[in-house]
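Its record is set out here:
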Amino acid sequence: MNLILLNFFLITVFLLTSCSSSNSIRLKGSSDSKKDDFSNVEIVKEIEGASIVHIDQKQRIVTIRSNKVLNKGYYITISSLSEKESSVLKLYDASYESLFIADILEGSPKINDSIAQATKERSKELDQNYTEADID
């Protein structure tokens, strides 16, 4: 009986581990990587009329509605309550009229969070940390 329970437990752990793995964005290996603290970063150039309208946590993507055309690149979400950075997104060319799709790279965006384009310095830093997805 104990052997059956042990096998069941191991199979369950294996399935849960393999199902939660992702192939979307891979972090480049570096010896000096450190975790950023988003709560201390001030944002100045918020894009008016742009906000998050849908979040898919399983696929780590968001849908953004914007009155203005958004170019592909890195964007930062701003919490409506604290006016601080809450996550980093990478926008691609996938859009439909005023809706845009972006990958969630860091943090946890919320519905109605505002959007700001990342500075050139921050974009360079993010380019060093993230690569395009490799399809296996």
